[in-house]
Amino acid sequence: MRWWHPSDVGFAARRKLADLGHGARLFVRLVADLGPCVRRFGLVRDQIHFLGNYSLAIIAVSGLFVGFVLGLQGYYTLQRYGASEALGLLVTLSLVRELGPVVAALLFAGRAGTSLTAEVGLMKAGEQLSAMEMMAVDPVRRVLAPRFWAGVITLPLLSAVFSAVGVLGGWVVGVLMLGVDSGAFWGQMQSGVDVLQDVGNGIVKSVVFGFTVSFVALLQGFEAQPTPEGVSRATTRTVVVASLAVLGLDFLLTAMMFSL
């Protein structure tokens, strides 16, 4: 039986710190490459189409069914207190504050994040990134930065679509199926939802999640072992790390926003 030596613990800690430092430097480079991405916006536009257009179907369908569930659960809960007319307010606040940004980010990590990791990892395995370096082309600026900023732009838009479709789903269940007054549904929603406090907080969350999921996906792909097994493990790590990061950041952001 092999016993752990203190030097093993120190080596593991030093390696983790080195990984964190490398990830921080990559994040700074991606943020600093905003200017070149703006000047060559065509690269970002193509990635927005790739990430957003192909994720739109799962976002819209998921938002619709989440709205259905919120409409059902909210109606039977509010009916106990004679406040079923507030169903629109409940559905909208639940979506724009929490469920819209969080669920959209989780779906984005599973759909688009894995695609980014696999794409970058396969480029590394095929030595395409090394070939760019041999031709004096920075792979971070040419490959990673457009994908990073495309993810930052795309996720807030997808979160807005998720929330809008979810509200529509809650209206279908509450008004058309359960008989809630349509005027009360929309009136309670309009009077109770604050643009800055509610919608604004959701937008801030979706932007932060966009940074997080895009960076995690690109980092895992960029650091993947150049083998099929390494790319598959990196893709799995993207879903796990990005999902846990989104949930943890959601708690921190919610605590900060409600304490202000």
Q: Could you explain the architecture of this structure?
A:
The chain is mainly α. It has one domain. The chain contains ten helices and no strands.
Q: How do you describe this structure in short?
A:
By secondary structure, this protein is mainly alpha-helical. It has 10 helices and no strands.
Keywords, please?
mainly alpha; 260 residues
Rounded to an integer in angstroms, the radius of gyration calculated over CA atoms is 22 Å
Mean of the pLDDT scores?
Answer: 89
Strand tally is 0
Ends: how far apart?
Answer: 54 Å
Count of all domains: 1
Q: Could you give the topology of this structure?
A:
Elements: H1 6-32, H2 34-39, H3 41-53, H4 56-79, H5 87-125, H6 128-134, H7 139-177, H8 182-192, H9 195-222, H10 228-259
